[in-house]
Each structure stands twice: as structure tokens, then as C-alpha cells.
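Both lines are retained for reference:
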Amino acid sequence: MNKTLVSLTLIFIASFAVNAQASSMSPMQTYLAYHKAVIAASKPDEILPYHTKKQAAKTRALSAKQQAQGLEMVQMFLAEEKGLKLVFEKINGDEATIKFKYCSEGKSGTKEVSMMMEGAAWKVGKSHSKTSLKPCK
């Protein structure tokens, strides 16, 4: 019983520390943490805390196989995005939009991501990328 109580206490403390850190992060900082977490994730559940409730629900509605395939695809795309540089970050109440430049396979690109404040933390919503034929600078 004591081991269980200690384990639950440690889980609670770790959860609180992650939430406290997330609440002080900007939308771009949150996205960068998400980017890193996605690349390191071994299962889809590991990145769901970064998603909006709506996005997380859509993922949970998929089969385990579809979730795993989706994670692999997102990992592939995000692993190719190098040198992320913020273009703008607009915050309007509980909503934010970030846009950044990146380099992927020698080509420059931009990505725009919608974010939502849920609880005390920014969460990742939808994103849209554009890769040009121009070489990275």
C-alpha cells in the first residue's frame, strides 16, 4: 500500500510540474516541446496531452493501428523540419496562431499552426505547411 501511495504521489507531482511548466510557455515554446515529443514518442498516447481536446478525441476514435500509422507519418514529417524560425505569433484571448519557417530536404517551407488555451496550457490544433522549391538559406 505504501509503495502505491508513493507511486501515485510521484505521478501527481510529475503531472503538476509538467502542467506548471506548460502554463508558462508561449504558443511557440509549446509547439517546440510538442515537436520534440512527437519525434521521441513510441506510442500515440505520449503526444495526446499536447493536442486540443478536439484533436485528441479524433485520434482516440481511430483504431490502434491507424493511430500508430498516423504517429509514424507525423514523426517522418516533423523529423524533416529543421531550423525552425518564428515568423509571427498572434495571441487573441484563448486562441493563438504561430507561423514559422523551416528547412526540409534542402527546400524552404512555412508552417502555420492554430493553438488553443485549454486549462492553463497551450494545446496544438490544426496545422498547414507549404514547402517551396526555393533552397534553404
